[in-house]
Design a protein that fits this description.
By secondary structure, this protein is mainly α. It has 6 helices and no strands. Bound molecules: protoporphyrin IX containing FE.
């Protein structure tokens, strides 16, 4: 990711932060619409889950310019996900639901440049998480 892409991701995420509860609802609704088979992996009540997701995203986004602070916790998160039943092939599905949510949340501020920056950010993070949790041979590319 280039420094200007990092800034695009951070600035656009700051615009979603005030509606983060709403964004998290949109995200899980979308995820379970496109991938109903993953619904049973999650608890029935998603209240806590929504908060954790948005908090973690904020930490990752804020840490993009300081990757050495983000990678160790991201590795641990990825390994916990193995026990949740997450598989490498789920990561692109989650990424697509995230991008869709940002597009809805940002409206006109969702420009091609912002989209490309988020694709780069999620691609980098998910590749790293998959490699840490399943070994690099599994990385979806
Ligand atoms: C970059 C991508 C992802 C991020 C940032 C993320 C974030 C989180 C966070 C913060 C939690 C709370 C628990 C914890 O910290 O261990 C969590 C739980 C969970 N995530 Fe993810 N996740 C990601 C990808 C995925 C994928 C690809 C799946 C596959 C469907 C998934 C399924 C789950 C499930 C099932 C739980 C546990 C629910 C529970 O039993 O409480 N996540 N995720």
């Amino acid at each position: 990711m280039t420094p200007s892409q990092i800034k695009l991701v951070q600035d656009s995420f700051a615009k979603v932060a005030p509606i983060s509860d709403q964004a998290a609802i949109i995200f899980y609704d979308r995820l379970f619409e496109v991938a109903p088979q993953v619904r049973e992996m999650f608890p029935n009540d998603l209240t806590e889950q929504r908060k954790k997701l948005m908090t973690t995203l904020a930490v990752v986004v804020n840490g993009l310019s300081n990757l050495e602070t983000v990678l160790p916790p991201a590795s641990a998160l990825a390994k916990r996900h193995v026990n949740y039943g997450a598989r490498p092939e789920h990561y692109p599905v989650v990424g697509a639901a995230l991008l869709w949510t940002l597009e809805k949340g940002l409206g006109d501020a969702w420009t091609p440049e912002v989209a490309a920056a988020w694709i780069a950010a999620y691609g980098t993070l998910s590749e790293y998480m998959i490699a840490e949790a399943y070994g690099s041979a599994q990385a979806a590319e």
